[in-house]
Amino acid sequence: MTAQPIRWTYAFVDRPMKEFGPATDFWTAVTGTRLSEPRGDQGEFVTLLPDAADACVKAQGVEAGDGGAHLDLAVEDVPALVESALRLGAELVADHGGWAVLRSPAGQLFCAVPWHGESVRPAVVEGHGGATSRLDQVCVDVPPSAYDTEIAFWSALTGWNSRPGALPEFHLVKPPAALPFRILLQRLGTDRPASAHLDIACSDIEAVRARHEELGATLISRGARWAVMRDPVGGTYCLTPRDPGTGSLPG
User: pTM of the full predicted structure?
Assistant: First the structure.
C-alpha cells in the first residue's frame, strides 16, 4: 500500500502546442467544460473547468511529438509519494519543488502534485437524444515484457482495487467512487514504448460518436467493445460502452 492516499486525480490531454487551440476547443466541448486562463511560460497549461464541481481534466501543449495523455496524482505529502514511487521502480524525471514528474517502470510519465482539497466529481455530460458520457479512464498501453511489472507498480502505488479486466489483455486499477479516473492497463501485442490515451464512458456509443464527429473527430476503427477515435488535431482516444455513472460495463 502507498504511504500517501491519493486524494484526487487529474487527467492531462497532451497535444502539440502548434495545435493547442483546436485541441482545447474540442476537449472542452466533449467534457462540458470551459477553459481557465493559460499558465506557463508559453501558455502551455490550461484547466478544463466544470460547473458546480472540482476540475479533474487539464491540457498541456507539448513542443515535441504527437502528445498523448498522463495522470497527475494529488496527495497531501508529495515527497512521500515520490519516495514510494521510486521504491516501487519509478524514475524521477524532474523535481519542481512542490511537485514532481516521474516515469513508471514501463516508461509512462505521470506527476505527483499537492492536493488542494478537491473532492466534488463533475457530473456526466448530457448529449443528443439523452445520451450521456464521461471522461473517466486513462488507459496505459504497456509492452508485454513490462505488463506484469506495470500492474504491480500501479496497484501498489495507488492502493486501489486491482483486478483483471473484461478481456485477457486488460487489467483495471479502480479508485474509490469519489475519485474521477480509473487506470486501465492494456497489454500490447508487440514491444514498443508505453503510451497512454483517454477513454470516455458512453451510454450510447453511436450517439456520442456522431456528436464528436460533428465537433471534428474521426472514427479510426472499432474494437470488440469500443470505438477508436481521433480528435481534430490527431490525438487518439476511445469511446467505450460503460455506464458513465459507475464506469461498469452493461450487465
Answer: 0.95
